[in-house]
Amino acid sequence: MHFDPEVGDSKGLGLIEQAIQLQKLEDSNA
To answer: Cα–Cα distance between 12 and 30 in angstroms, integer?
Structure first.
């Protein structure tokens, strides 16, 4: 997991984006 304290709020958006990508992968694998 890449962690960059300088990013601030966009860090949270990155985690959300990552979760969406993982969900898409799970859906296509299902």
So the answer is: 27
